[in-house]
Design brief:
Elements (H helix, E strand, L loop, with lengths): L4 E4 L9 H14 L6 H19 L3 H15 L6 H16 L8 H9 L3 E7 L2 H11 L7 E5 L4 H11 L6 E5 L2 H11 L2 E4 L20 E3 L6 H7 L2
Parallel strand pairs: 1-2, 1-4, 2-3, 4-5, 5-6
Helix pairs in contact: 1-4, 2-3, 3-4, 7-8
Magnesium ion binds next to loops.
């Protein structure tokens, strides 16, 4: 078996995340409705987030700061402190929201762990990602947890070299084409896309359907069977 290491994304691969962001977006749009329609608000918020990524990194805390900044901008600083307090509360709620593993994930990790070393590779805030892993009850399956600021080909080369025999003997599984699939293929690994119904606008990209080391799966439960097919 040539694949010995399985890298797994966390948000929207092991548990729901974007669903919670969506609920917060809805609340944000509702609070700022007196100043702009929801389409404008979505566009402005996405633009603020994009601009802030290199400053705050990924995750709910940076998102909360971007919501506050967008609220001040679109209202031309007329937004009330009550609304700002509500936005802050919505951001706080994201940090403490219960962690809900996706269906079949526990059994899939059990099956994968029997034959492979599992490494969790996720972007985002260290404290929040560690809290979510602890709350998920899935921590015991992983040989390692790598919380990285960006998922590039070099990130995957480095992680897969440290945990095993290098990227050629590893697969990355996740829901983001841009972060989990394209850079892992570039590093020389296999890559399994497990789509999640909602994709964050800043993660959208086309799947490399014809790539020989790429496979789109319906769920994580299908990963062990695909790995067994790899010579
Ligand atoms: Mg993800």
């Amino acid at each position: 078996m040539s694949v010995r290491i399985v890298g797994l994304d966390a948000d929207d691969t092991l548990w729901h995340s974007e669903k919670i962001f969506r609920l917060t977006h809805d609340r944000f749009n509702e609070l700022l409705a007196p100043f702009a329609d929801s389409q404008t608000l979505e566009a402005r918020l996405a633009e603020t987030e994009r601009r802030n990524l290199s400053v705050f990194g990924y995750g709910a805390k940076g998102f909360t700061l971007s919501m506050l900044e967008t609220a001040l901008d679109v209202s031309e600083r007329k937004v009330t402190t009550d609304v700002l307090a509500e936005i802050l509360a919505a951001g706080r709620e994201m940090m403490t929201h219960p962690v809900e593993p996706l269906p079949g994930v526990h059994a899939a990790l059990e099956a994968l762990e029997a034959e492979h070393r599992l490494v969790l590779i996720t972007k985002g805030d260290l404290f929040h990602q560690e809290s979510k892993l602890a709350a998920s009850g899935l921590g015991e399956f992983f040989s390692g947890v790598e919380i990285v600021s960006e998922k590039s080909a070099d990130t995957y080369r480095d992680v897969f070299r440290r945990y095993g025999e290098g990227a050629e003997h590893a697969v990355m599984a996740g829901n983001s084409v841009r972060s989990d699939i394209l850079p892992a293929l570039e590093a020389g690994s296999y890559a399994a896309l497990i789509p999640y119904p909602i994709v964050w606008v800043n993660e959208a990209a086309d799947a490399p359907t014809a790539h020989p080391r790429f496979k789109e799966l319906e769920s994580l439960a299908d990963l062990p069977a695909w790995l067994a097919e790899i010579p």
